[in-house]
Specification:
Layout lengths: L2 H10 L6 E8 L2 H7 L3 E6 L7 E7 L4 E7 L3 E6 L4 E7 L6 E3 L2 E3 L3 E5 L5 E5 L3 E9 H10 L6 H6 L2 E5 L2 H20 L8 H18 L11 H14 L8 H8 L3 H12 L3 H19 L6 H7 L5 H12 L3 H6 L2
Antiparallel strand pairs: 1-3, 2-5, 3-4, 4-11, 5-10, 6-9, 6-11, 7-8, 7-10, 9-12
Length: 329
């Protein structure tokens, strides 16, 4: 069988048009995260009510998910199990950091399925993820004679490469597909069949073949190492609450140095990030709480004792009172 006939055979196996399977507005990011097939943890960094939208187009060879957020978030988690996932941020979005590296919007991002991902989005963020089954990519790479180390891709992380015009072209094609269902009101997108069959997969494989070396390979400066150590400490609930001074002692750096590290990465200082981390944890528990749960009990469990100040801080951060979250308003 020739290469061209193999390619046609691969496309014929997956000829079903992609379908819009999710189109949802949301103001509760925790509920949306819990409903997804991903392991997600979002910490809201900016203050205000969230207005978000998620749309998912699913085809036999590729699943595309477009997310729009109007608040700044620290995003952590793991992508859908069994899939290899890449991301393309949108250039109109405000500054976006991925695994410690700035992403401009014309790059291909790697969602490490083993080590997880770590991103910081500014306000008015928009981006698209593309998920493929590993065997689909491996088969197509063999047909196209584009061999590269899949294990390096799967276990790597960060910004894979600045792809420029190619990612712009993919993004435009995806936009046309999403706009098609919005305009026609249909859930199927026949015009995007070739893109979702092998088109976008081939484009990404060719990009990876050009450069599979992650950009985030440089030795991290001392301040970035201190930041990573601080975040590791804050990840463990038993370490919270913690003061800035206490965190600095455990990390072994000065308060100004750690402040600069948090400010450079997240746009907020150490104290503000710790508060955002705790408020996000409280919110997650309020959303999952059983009937009869007392807000005081959850707040006290995270070291919060001044309930009036807590309610004010919570409302400023999320645009609603803790009682409204508990009641599912």
């Amino acid at each position: 069988m020739t290469e061209s006939s193999q390619y046609r055979s691969a496309r014929e196996k997956i000829s079903t048009p992609p379908r819009l399977v999710v189109d949802r507005l949301f103001s509760n990011i925790e509920a949306w995260a819990a409903a997804s097939d991903w392991d997600l943890d979002f910490r809201q960094l900016s203050a205000g009510r969230l207005n978000g939208r998620v749309r998912v187009l699913a085809g036999p060879g590729c699943t595309a998910m477009k997310v729009q957020l109007n608040q700044s978030f620290h995003q952590l988690g793991h992508s859908q199990p069994g899939y290899v996932t890449f991301g393309i941020p949108y250039p109109p979005s405000s500054e976006f950091k991925w695994c410690g590296s700035s992403a401009r919007g014309d790059e291909l991002l790697n969602f490490n399925p083993f080590g997880g991902f770590d991103g910081i989005s500014g306000k008015s963020f928009s981006g698209c993820t593309l998920s493929f089954r590993r065997e689909t990519l491996e088969e197509l790479a063999e047909i196209l004679d584009l061999p590269f180390d899949f294990e390096k891709i799967l276990h790597g992380g960060g910004v894979l490469l600045g792809a420029g015009e190619e990612t712009t072209r993919i993004r435009r094609q995806l936009d046309v597909a999403f706009q098609s269902v919005s305009i026609t009101g249909r859930t199927e997108v026949p015009a995007a069949s070739s893109l979702f069959e092998t088109g976008v997969a081939e484009a990404i494989l060719r990009l990876l073949a050009q450069s599979s070396r992650p950009r985030w390979d440089a030795v991290q400066p001392a301040r970035q190492i201190a930041l990573r150590n601080a975040l590791d400490i804050l990840e463990i609930p038993e370490n919270l609450p913690i003061s800035v001074a206490g965190l600095c002692r455990r990390v072994g750096v000065s308060a100004p140095s750690l402040f600069r590290a948090f400010k450079e990465m997240f746009g907020v200082g150490t104290k503000e990030y710790i508060q955002a981390r705790i408020l996000a944890a409280v919110r997650s528990e309020l959303i999952a709480a059983r009937p009869g749960t007392q807000i005081n009990d959850i707040a006290n469990g995270w070291g919060i004792w001044h309930m009036g100040r807590f309610a004010a801080d919570y409302r400023k951060q999320f645009g609603e009172l803790p009682s409204e979250t508990l009641q599912g308003v």
